[in-house]
Amino acid sequence: MKFALCSSSLELSNLCFEGLRCNTADLRFAKSFQGFGFLAKNENVQQSYRNGKRMVISSQLMPGHLEGSFMGNKQLQDPSRKLDFVRTLLIDNYDSYTYNIYQELSVVNGVPPVVVKNDEWTWEEVCHYLYEEKAFDNIVISPGPGSPTCAADIGICLRLLLECRDIPILGVCLGHQALGYVHGAQIVHASEPVHGRMSEIEHNGCRLFSDIPSGKQSGFKVVRYHSLVIDAQSLPKEIVPIAWTTSTGTHSFLESQNSDFTSDACESQIRATIGYDTFSPELNNGTSWSFSRSREVKKRKILMGIMHSTRPHYGIQFHPESIATCHGRKIFENFREMTRDYLRSTFFKERHAFYTACMQVPGVSQLFGVPRNGPLEYSEDTLPFRETSRMQILGKVDEKNCVSISSLLSFPESSGRVKHLKLKWRKFDRLAAQLGGARNIFCKLFGANKAENTFWLDSSSVEKKRARFSFMGGKGGSLWKQMTFILSDESDIALKSGGYLSIEHAQGVTKSMYLENGFLDFMNQELQSFLYDEKDFEGLPFDFYGGYIGYIGYNLKVECGMLSNRYKSKTPDACFFFADNFVVIDHQYDDVYIMSVQEGSTTNTTWLDDVEQKLLHLEASPVSKLEKQTSQPSTIFSCEAGFLAEKSREQYINDVHKCLEYIKDGESYELCLTTQMRKKVGDIESLRLYLHLREKNPAPYAAWLNFSNENLCICCSSPERFLRLDRNGVLEAKPIKGTIARGRTEEEDEQLKLQLQYSEKDQAENLMIVDLLRNDLGRVCEPGSVHVPRLMDVESYATVHTMVSTIRGKKRSNINAVDCIRAAFPGGSMTGAPKLRSMELLDSLESCSRGIYSGSIGFFSYNQTFDLNIVIRTIVIHEGEASIGAGGAIVALSNPEDEYDEMILKTGAPAKAVVEFQ
Known about the structure:
Residues 450-594 form the Anthranilate synthase component I N-terminal domain. It is found in: Plastid, Chloroplast. It comes from Manihot esculenta (Cassava). Among the domains are: 88-254 and 300-345, Rossmann fold; 418-618 and 642-729 and 811-917, Anthranilate synthase (4-Layer Sandwich), CATH 3.60.120.10. The chain contains 23 helices and 40 strands. The strands form 6 sheets. Strands 16, 17, 18, 22, 25, 26, 27, 28, 29, 30, 36, 39 and 40 form a 13-stranded mixed β-sheet that branches. Strands 19, 20, 21, 23, 24, 31, 32, 33, 34, 35, 37 and 38 form a 12-stranded antiparallel β-sheet that branches. It has a 9-stranded mixed β-sheet with strand order 6-5-7-8-13-12-11-9-10, sandwiched between helices. It is globular and about 85 Å long. 55% of the residues are buried. Residues 1-81, 275-298, 347-413, 491-495 and 624-634 have low confidence and may be disordered.
């Protein structure tokens, strides 16, 4: 299809683009454009030297080259010129969606891109890799917080757009704005911030949008995350507009899902990524429109795409990598093909395939704190691949020439020796109900002496298969120990991620040490030191076979990319038991397992024998029946229960207004603002309080932890999984975003559930966090494997309805368990997006440390499987004081008063439990 460009206001009459008609007769070019990958002598090429490094920049750029119209027929027909792989330099503007782009480019290009922070390389290094090493074929500039007018937000990107005129560049969102700004366009506030919401797109048919429909009801809907825009009236003549929104309105995801005009391609893309049918499409190829009415359009529509008239530089304001964007992958495919044709047109010589296959992703230097010096590293996990039914590796790298991430991340053994662990276990079929269920088993086996030093990962809500297993135990055998970690004084910048670890062993000996590299490094050392035989746990249906059970506090974000903590936690920043003797309950089949981990060839079965006898002689206690919470919803909130809030209603609402200002200015898309409620409770019977809480508010990821030496008990009724890694290497996250109270009647309850389901605000919240978790998993998962089996499901609990999504991916083989935690902690549902910038802003707004709240409770098995929750709906009892944390996601659609009410709602169940118990 061909289109006419006839807008004199944009001075486009002299330009010719492939597939576009122009008034000029058969335009020919005498010379081919000199590309960056060919260093032959040419009068049109200037060579400059910066600090001894050569940089090649073209001095003559031909109009129309970016669409490939000037290429000779012989070059186009030469099959040997086709590039099997396209190598992308992906500039990360500290965004939380960059690795979604990484995943897409890995699939589309056949080889993963190299990810570099916008301030990681000097200009000399950039020139070295682009023009001396010829390491990249194109550049993609990621989204990010802030504005291209701020040097700290945009880093080296503006200089790339100014000086790398002979390299194809695609800017996304912030990168799009940077392309306009660097050439003189103005960046202004949009009429309203739009984050996690969808718009229909109209385009001019340029090659970036090849085979993508255009216009209203065409099926081309995209997700937008921005509050700043390029002022279309300020576009310089060298920047050509190529796409707009079709109207000023936006759409929610479910509104788009239920529409009858979504295209087949869009349906196919979202089905493949989400994993279930959501659309009833009717394909419409769309129509084009002329720029002759661009002035009228620019007044009422928002600019969504631009390109440079004489350089291969493009920008799109929307997010093609989002789970809900239609035709997003096609845009990346089009950019790949444009890059290939552009390189062929410049007599580009094919590179050595081995170098292409082995480029290591430098992004691990930020993700894992691994220093990266010298040339690009190599890794077997960045081999080129093509996607058929699943990812397929095409080759094997010579280990002598490649350095894997796992070798870079190896640590000395924590204990000075390898521990050979042996697992013994026994199974009792259909026994749990006969013994009165999990509650009775825990109380009879571990409830004596105030249940000191005990744990219970408690799947107290197992309906709809939300959870299946419970793990419980106490101070066990010779391998038992307790680890307590406290971050050092945060005022000392040099020690910001280090801290003090205390280890109490089963024999009563306590050792203390300073961990310069922090707790997660130490946990990794511990897990790496275990040797085991997989045959020991063959036949077990769960993934915990012994190891560490405890929690990671929110302040450990400083070990996961955050620069500092503003407040020091009153509770330890991490506490774990090493569980060597424990009980497992399979709620699906009612089976009971008793498990014992020992070292070496030890065959002591004393604990197993003893617990077996106790179980066989255990008498069932009467099981209390839960009240139907839909008819009697919680009416007691924290403020009525004698809890004192860290912030008053007025202060919290004022903070919400501040969040909205940050969002308006582009500093964040979503901010999860929280606060704490506290109450003196003295020497309360903590276990009885937890039993009361689990009865009134059962949850699939509930937990009881009693660290007696720390005078610390945790009563958790969390409905949210943070992250799980199973024995097959599959990672799963289940973020919750969107909460509403249960109704007093069945009719009211159903109406409230539907209100949540179709709320544009709550859908936007959930979508933003789903894209964020896809990004976090994308850092450590095989390219092409991250998917969303369930999107925006509404789940009902005792006191609230919540909107839950599920994200999964296949872990890369050279990534370990702790690497996965570093990539995703803290859970994005408790921070907002982009994560790092949002945490910085939240630290400036919140008045105390979150402590255990917003962290994670769960296990690390000795074979490196793990399962961790998000600490919400939780009572933390420390030194005679009970605290409850709560908050909510602030987005552009938020109402400050409603946000305060939602925060109070979330404290209802735990606060009511305290009041009723006392």
